[in-house]
Amino acid sequence: MTWTRQFALGLAGTLAATALLTAPATAQDAPSGAQAGPSAAAHLTDLVDPFIGTQNEGNTYPGAAVPFGMVQLSPDTGHNTGYDYAQDHIRGFSLVHLSGVGCGLGGDLPVLPVTGDVTTTDYARYAAGFGHDDESASPGYYRVGLDSGIEAELTATARTGVQRYTFPATAKADVLLNAGQSLHAKVATKVEILDDHTVRTTLTGRGFCQDTKAYTLHTITHFDRPFTAYGTWDGSTVTDGARSGSDGAYVRFDTTKDRTVEATTALSYVDARGAAGNLRAEGGRSFDAVRRAAGRAWEDRLDDVRVRGGADGLRRTFYSSLYRSFLAPNIGSDADGRYTGWDQRIHRAQGFTYYQNWSLWDTYRTQSQLLSLLAPREARDMAVSVVHIAEESGWLPKWGYGTVETNIMTGDPVTPFLTNAYQQGLLGGYEERAYRALRKNADGVPPADSPAVGREANREYLANGFAPYVKGRPHAKPGDSDYDHGASATLEYALSDAMLARMAEDLGHRADAARYAARAQNYRKVFDPSTGFFRARDASGAFTGPADPAQSEGFHEGTSWQYQWLVPQDIPGMVGLIGGQAAANARLDSFFAYDRLLADPAKTAREVWVNGPYAYYNADKYNPQNEPDLIAPYTYLSTGQPWKTTDVVHAALTLFTDAPTGMTGNDDLGTMSAWMVLSSIGVFPVQPGYDTWGLSTPVFDRVDLTLDRRYHPHGRLTITAPGTSGTDRYIQAARVDGAPYGRTYLTTAELRAHRSLSLTVGPRPSDWGTSADAAPPALR
Q1: What is the pLDDT of residues 231-252, one digit of tens each?
Q2: Do residues 128 and 152 make contact, with C-beta atoms less than 8 angstroms apart?
Q3: Which domain holds residue 728?
Q4: Are 649 and 730 in the same domain?
Q5: 433, containing H or E segment
Q6: CB-count burial class (<10 Å; 0-12, 13-18, 19+) for 116
Q7: Which of 9, 206, 337, 575 is deepest in the core (most CB within 10 A)?
């Protein structure tokens, strides 16, 4: 039986048939390096450009993946997070990447086709030159012509990466599998040549911003034809004919007649048996068959959102953002359901798919809500996975990579992540289990022998109502420390307390609910009346750091100006602290440079707001590139001037383009992309962790959402704003299922109960949404 026949079961037949656009959009010439489409796009995938965000620290990757897949097979050029559009050499095509992370992570098992004798094992030295004129990508597929004359093509299933290399005619066509190098630290590696078709590796690594506990992954690579020669290397010493080595292997083919070599690499975070099982379950098909299946998977996913109106570039930008929103979190369980838990033991997922990779400080604000709307079944399994992490390791995660905690970022992001899942109805059967984990997290601190830091400053927060800013305090564990950012940690703890209070109340834990609701007001403890802004306190309780809110210390990746609006649980209370509605609107206008914005939105966004991808500090203006400000434009919905939300949001949307530089800041596992999608359709989660969706004018005349009937009985929601444009962008009136609607928000229950949201727009602001009861209510 041939290998292809042996593994033919794979995933064939499990993906939906390709869905065509009913009204194809016209596509202009794509940017350099993009997959150019015909004059009329035949598929929504034709509107996606995976190169967007690969330059200027967007840190996206252009390689092949399926939605939420374990494998992301993509080229690495030497940038610390993988691929940089400005670079011109490829070191290898590696298995694991995360979209938009800010530190080196992944890049495991870089593989590169070469010709001739293997004389170096350093992938920085053997890197192959390439140019963007001979490079293209689309969802689930990547190809490039290397200067060596080799063509490389990549595609993927959920747990495998499939490669096709077309060599020149030569007797020395080699494929290098460099197990010992990646985008971050390798602790140990092992390479084995199993037979004349198969290479197995075990890789143990650690990293991501700071040194963390090690994780291990296992791979098996099966080639479609036998090697003519092979060898392995340890360090820089290559041993021809050796079957095992510590750092890498090469396999050789004779391509004088048959120039094409295909290979499938399966990945497992469990063991070698898991990798082999994943290969049996998903391998065995030709490259072209896998590529077609990956394209169908993406078409089916993107087809849940159809837009009408808007320029060609806007549609490309929108669908590319929607694509990136579905890249993570990632499947962590093998085809047999086994996964490695955070206790480093093997478990089996029963009744759910186990997911991993949790950039929670980022994603709790936008991406988790988008997935709860458009991918509720996967979002449910993601939330259930987080509950299992808590039960298996003892504590909820903060920023999890693979099978380990990294403790990157601060605050308590897992609470609004899970309470959002609860409020969206995704935790059926897990409500009390999730609540127990959340209560333990909210009321305690992980012990010294736990890798987790949790709410690190919780003892002081519970005793005094604030997390102290302790400058220069040694870190007890790898990762970030809440003591380094006491002011912003306090605001984030209080936000989480508010969301947990509502969940506790719903579940009948009334004493807990009252306690958490009281703690949700702790944002007031870091408000300094002498400056009128939030400010850090030291361990004695004294306000500390510069009084200038644009220079303030104690805020993570931001200033007091930027964190001023991170009180979504009680906007009215925050507005009262700073002097009332008029004072709040004046401060918001200054923050957004509103007068300049009206004169030239795009210029204001690029020259006043944006000062570089990592310019987080020493600013008194809106930073649309970073998470603390993601909700800020929607504050106007609560201050009687909802039209200004549309002005600011539409200006910020100009920062997203269909060029490689078209991402504003790091994408952070789909966070910024999800912000773009939600803001473009005019429905945004203004109280992360709760069920409140703020309304603004969409940028499209019509948006049709196909929704999962398990959670949305009608299965569809249509949002219309006929004639919306740069000038006619102000809501004059709103109707829900034809009935007049005057509030600036909808609840999840209302989204599910109705079929249509119809907006009438015009060239000037109106009094829509300005009544006393129009704003999202405080969660008290």
Answers
A1: 999 999 999 999 999 999 999 9
A2: no
A3: 570-780
A4: yes
A5: helix 431-443
A6: exposed
A7: 575
